[in-house]
Amino acid sequence: QGTEVAKDASDMIITDVSFCSIVAAVEKGRAIYTGIQKCVAFIISVHIADVMQILVCIVAGIPVMRTPLQILFLVLVTPSIALGMEP
User: Fold this and answer.
1) Rounded to whole angstroms, how far apart are CA atoms 63 and 70?
2) Taking the model in full, what pTM does it have?
């Protein structure tokens, strides 16, 4: 009875008690977590560089070098390409 209640309350149930499958799942989870970390670091670095470039253009009094479409491309498309290229 208690086991069924625990299964209903859990988000994930281990159906295969093989230690090898548990190790493989942990390795896969770590790889996914590392990929997310790399993608977030990439996004932050791209945005910081973009903001710095816009600030320099404003301070120097020259026109901004990026169009809104280019900024939108950097925000939406580039991170998905970087995440997709990760092995």
Assistant:
1) 15
2) 0.63
